[in-house]
Amino acid sequence: MTVAMEKPETTEAAPPVAPARSVRKVGRPVVIAAILVVWLVLFAVLRGKQTLSLAVADLTDLHRWINDFNDSIGANRNSNPLFLYFFNEIRLVIDNLVTFVQHLISQPSGARPVPQIGWLGVVGLAGFASWALGNWKVALLTVAGFTFFGLQGLWQESMDTLALILCAVFVALLFAIPLGVWAGLSDRFNRFITPFLDFMQTMPAFVYLAPLTLVFLIGGASATIATVVYAAAPTIRITAHAIRNVSKTTVEAADSLGATRRQSLLKVLLPMSKRTVVMGVNQTIMAALAMVTVAALINAPGLGVNVLQALQSLDVGTAFNAGLAIVIMAIVLDRVTTAAAAREENARNARHDLTKWRPALLGAGAVVTVVLIYLSHTYLWAADFPGDGTVGSHIASATDTVTTWVQDHLSGMTNAFRDGMTNGLLNPFQTLFTDSPWWLVGAVLVALAVVLGGWKSGITTAVCVGLLVATGVWSDAMTTLASTIVATVLVMILGVVFGVWMGRSTLVDRTIRPTLDAAQVMPPFVYLVPFLALFGATRFTAIVAAIVYGAPVAMKIIADGIRAVPETTVEAATSAGCNTWQIITKVQLPMSRSALTLATNQGLIYVLSMVVVGGLVGAGALGYDVVAGFSQGELYGKGLAAGLAIVLLGVMFDRITQAAARRAGA
């Protein structure tokens, strides 16, 4: 009998299942690189076609329509009800205010050959005000600075500039502080006004001038109104921020004690936010100084006229002397308002036996100031600054000597550097923008906006591109765009290098930051002077000045971003064996992406404003169009269109970088 052997049970193995393939998301840098490669390929094929180039003297139908519109406004200015009862009245009020302050401190008044308050009274009044608002150190700085204006031979010009600043800041604060309080108290109004503030702070100072001259003509009134519009935004924004950051428990405590809304505002919110509001006033004063110097383009009196005329005639010595006066005024005004913001805190920390004498000393100082004002009003020696400005002549002469030496001995090096950068970097990059078909550049900009900032940024960019084409200055806009991008890239390189260094070292930060603060105080005009001596009147001069102007803000933002990276994260990376380079590139910079994007945003805005101002020293493009529009009546329409193009570039840059910053911070 055969016994059947039972086969052991075997478990059949299931067929192997192929692992699911993970879909790898294409990184943003790869997409950007692909867009740029496609652009370069199409540029090689389509170069020089549909570039929308326009000669300097050529006008489009839009430009001619603007010229005709400007002429019709001029013809009907005194008959049109809108001008007769509104715009002309505003201009008259502002003009009377400016004239009053000028007659008070800078210009002859009526039959008097000198102002109502002469130099001695102005110096005494400025010193006393600085002491009352700040401290005795700031008062000494103010007296020394104002006296130096006279020694430079620029007393009247400096007082004209100060008069415009005082008028503009006074009018700006009348509107800005109430609007800021309203925005701080009302979420709805804050949401409504924020886009307008963003827009106002995005526009370079240059751009405000052309449309306002259309309505208010050229002169001090237009300059003051432009300054008011330009300078009001910081105070509105900072006041709203200060009101919103008052402790809620303090407000609730006041409400529980029965305080009305008015009492809560006057007794709690405003007193507790006073220091921050004063810092907003500081920013408004600095913005006003920057604007009134640029406003020399529309015949605003003051130091800006000296700088503008010197730049146009390539007189570096005179430009440096006037620029130095602007810097000194900026430093004095900045230190006074900064000291005013910190005075109460410093007084609390000071010894009681020193502060108790302050009211008596201020009273004595007020008496001395009144005596000085009387003397300056009564006697010619105290009214008209003595001397013939020999200090200023020596400064201008020394500057010319240094400039001549630099041009004789360093011109080979500086010209080689300028030509190398221009031919090796600027020209090829500019050619890529200006010789590509307009629709190709527009498509690339929209695609980059979508990749960096999302669909909303892409839509905004598409609208801006369409409007840029409509302005008729597409080619000049592309030249300005190329220069701005090159300068911004170099600004970010400097910003990352020095920002990381400052963020990682407290000693370096304390050493460099005061210089950066001082650099941000100076108006854009001033930056052109030294580089005009080094590189001559070329667009490279404007680009280098733009880099130096935009770098400080980028450095400070990046330094703060690096410092904000948690110490525990850095320590963990160190304990894991990372070296310094790895910590910077793998930890600190990636964790500071939002700060890097914000620095790019601010750097772009600063650079754009300076590249446009560079139209005064040969930068050409949109800056030249705006300047030519002020000086040549037939080009007014083109200049106004160029101003609109600058606004569109600023809005486009701002929206893309802000959206990218939000993405980075998400």
Describe the structure.
Helix content is 80%, strand content 0%. With 666 residues, it is mostly helical. Helix 13 runs parallel beside helix 24 (524-535) and helix 14 packs across helix 24. The radius of gyration is 30 Å and the shape is globular.
From the structure above, extract its key features.
mainly alpha, globular, 30 helices, 0% strand, 666 residues
Number of DSSP-assigned strands: 0
For the biggest sheet, the summary is: none
Number of alpha- plus pi-helical segments = 30
The fraction of residues assigned to DSSP E strands is under 5%
Mean pLDDT: 84
Structural class: mainly alpha
- N- to C-terminal distance: 82 Å
* H/E element order: HHHHHHHHHHHHHHHHHHHHHHHHHHHHHH
Q: From the alpha-carbon coordinates, what is the Rg to the nearest angstrom?
A: 30 Å
Using the alpha-carbon principal axes, give the shape. globular
Helix content: over 70%
| Low-pLDDT segments, ≥5 res | 1-12
